[in-house]
Amino acid sequence: MSVDFSLPDGWTLETTDTVKAAGRSIVSGPFGSNIGKRFFVDQGVPVIRGNNLSLRMERFSDSGFVFLSEEKAKEFVNCEAHPDDLIFTAAGTIGQVGLIPKTPKYLKYIISNKQLRARLDRARVLPLFAYYWFASPPMVAMIQNRNTGSTIPLINLSVLKSLPIPLPPLPIQHGIVGVLAALDDRIALLRETNATLEAIAQALFKSWFVDFDPVRAKQDGRAPEGMDEATAALFPDGFEESELGLVPNGWGTRPIYEFASYINGAAYKAFEPNSECRGLPIIKIAELKAGVTAQTAYSDISMPDKYLIATGDILFSWSGNPDTSIDTFVWQYDSAWLNQHIFRVIPNDPAERSFVLQTLRYLRPVFAELARNKQTTGLGHVTVADLKRLKVICPNKVASELFTATVAPIHWRIFENERQAQTLATLRDTLLPRLISGQLRLPEVEAQ
Fold this sequence. Notes:
Blueprint (H helix, E strand, L loop, with lengths): L11 E4 L10 E3 L11 E2 L3 E4 L17 E3 L1 H4 L6 E2 L4 E4 L7 E3 L9 E3 L3 E4 L8 H9 L1 H9 L11 H6 L1 E4 L2 H40 L3 H7 L9 H4 L6 E4 L2 E4 L3 E4 L4 E5 L15 E4 L1 H6 L7 E2 L8 E2 L4 E4 L1 E2 L6 E4 L5 E3 L3 E6 L5 H10 L1 H10 L6 E2 L2 H6 L1 E4 L2 H40 L5 H6 L1
Parallel strand pairs: 4-9, 16-22
Antiparallel strand pairs: 1-11, 2-10, 3-5, 4-5, 6-9, 7-8, 7-10, 12-13, 14-25, 15-23, 16-17, 18-22, 19-21, 19-23, 20-24
């Protein structure tokens, strides 16, 4: 993105350095060996890492922390983060930016050795205005294009200090933030609804296929809770021994690999990637997390159909950071190409799709541990051999199909909500750089 645009009267073009707050307001995290794993404790002062930031403009994830003791954290007072501070990823997934909320879960945070902190002059720039600017797709692209690393993407304090930011008068900043935050609030509501729906699906899966609540109730001579008589009749009333311990009569165990076909993506170079958006996007783990972005490469060459992703496909990322990359997704976008390190999962029986999807999601901690045990240079992986060894409950066909019939509408609602959230996010991402650079004025937006 060029910074040589014409700003409206009364706006100025600044840099992060010229709008910083007084004192040591732009800093990097502690030196790596001073904040390593050996200092982590069960509770204390949380350390902000890359998993707390996002490329999806989600501001900040106030969970999933490691902690330092209060005593150890005192060594890093200059690296503390407080409400309204901006946090940037300095190594790895550069372009990620977060904003510490006004009412955070913790009193203070310490940024990790792979993060940068910017504290701006609030008399000149609203923190949320600055966040939207730096998280906008053009600015993310600019940050990524200023990569200073050779093998691992990097940015440093010099890059952060030099980033441009247009500065309108505060009333205009408030107006712009109001428009964008209204869209964000709707997106957040849809995703909160989806979290609730997913929790319902997970609770039902655990009740039926982990705790075996309907079977235990029938064994005790009770009617299964929340289940009509006809549905209850589909479950056994006792247990038998298996490799996994007691399982309902007539059920069994099978490797998770035998429930579906797992098609690995093609090597990235095989697609002959282009940056001109010719053909279809190539889906890597980054796209599973952030969707198709300006950084996504495309391919217009002919490839086997098995590498073609369709809307609604189940995708399982089997390589990467065990805590943040090993996961199961449902593809929300249009057709695309599947890159390696991701399995396209095709259930052997379409009537068992929801059962397969929920089983994979339930096993996420198991997959993460498998990957962690093979972790090298921060990356781990789950192999086909792992999937063939990992045995799970195999209910009778009636029970698995009943689960899909019950949960499929929930999964469909989640899918539709996420599609709507993506539409709103696209609208926000389209408006954002034009509003925040003065190319589109607030009265024009309100008129439309």
